[in-house]
Amino acid sequence: MKHVEIYTDGACSGNPGPGGWGALLVYEQTEEELCGKEKNTTNNRMELMAVIRALEYLPDICSVALYTDSTYVKNGITLWIRNWMKNGWLNSQKEPVKNQDLWLQLLKISAKHKVSWNWIRGHVGNQFNERADRLAKGQCHS
User: Fold this and answer.
1) Is 113 a known active-site residue?
2) Residue 83 counted as domain residue
3) pLDDT 10s digits, 64-115
4) Catalytic residue among 19, 20, 69, 76
5) Three-point CA angle 34, 77, 58, nearest 5°
6) Active site residue 47
């Protein structure tokens, strides 16, 4: 099974507003950059889209070390999602979970791979996280 490291980030100019997402995939000596944008979105949606699109890009089943600076993404997929599903997609305040459509996509695509979810502090000089950030921000203003 191939091992891939993925670094993701999302950005938004205003929240909501124009947004972008970026992902950097690292496999052996190869690096692949992915990015995209939406006209009217939120930062959290862009954080989720970065992860979804990066995992969808993988042609084969992979072992993935995924790095995100979003506690929303990391905690959502590793801690909160089980309770959301058990509670009919209501959060702890009994309100509908935001971005349910993207959480469902993420569940489906992440199940195809062996993913380890890792939170990384943003903007502290990690070169791969910084590149994902630049990709995402570049999409907000293009």
Assistant:
1) no
2) no
3) 999 999 999 999 999 999 999 999 999 999 999 999 999 999 999 999 999 9
4) 69
5) 35
6) yes
